[in-house]
Design goal:
single chain, about 140 residues, alpha+beta, four-stranded antiparallel beta sheet, 4 strands, disordered N terminus
Length: about 140
């Protein structure tokens, strides 16, 4: 069994149970287990076949962009869920602008950063794990 880690602490460590005995090339089929120790989470799937990536396939536009976007969103949700689980994030707060709101992403990032800097200094200055996301309202409120 070979463990492969991407270097990102919130990405799962992949244990390829289907790796050959030499440990160099994965077998053509077998079980794959992903473990994220920090979040206490694991999941597995069965790979029916393995096709090595060819050098000329470095950039291959997707045949189905909608499916590609859905898969990217699924991976992002999983990464966020692992981060929240590993840091014990179990509260939800909502920050809302008054009036017409703010629809400038750069200004939003600056405002959120300032909010959390002030919160951290008010709590003694030690590290504060958090996750935030923007929710753009087109209805005109903040």
């Amino acid at each position: 069994m070979v463990a492969v880690h991407s270097g990102d602490p919130w990405s799962p460590t992949r244990n390829l149970a289907s790796t050959s005995r030499s440990g160099r090339t994965p077998a053509r089929a077998g079980w794959e287990l992903c473990v994220c120790v920090a979040a206490g989470e694991a999941g597995g799937s069965f790979r029916y076949s393995y096709s090595p990536r060819r050098s000329y396939d470095v950039y291959c536009p997707s045949a189905d962009p909608a499916r590609t976007a859905a898969e990217a969103a699924r991976r992002a949700r999983a990464k966020l869920r692992r981060y929240c689980a590993a840091n014990g994030l179990n509260r939800l707060g909502t920050l809302t602008y008054r009036g017409d709101g703010c629809y400038d992403p750069k200004q939003l990032r600056q405002d959120v950063g300032e909010f959390f800097r002030r919160m951290r200094s008010g709590l003694g200055g030690k590290a504060l794990p958090y996750a935030w996301t923007a929710e753009w309202h087109m209805s005109g409120h903040g």
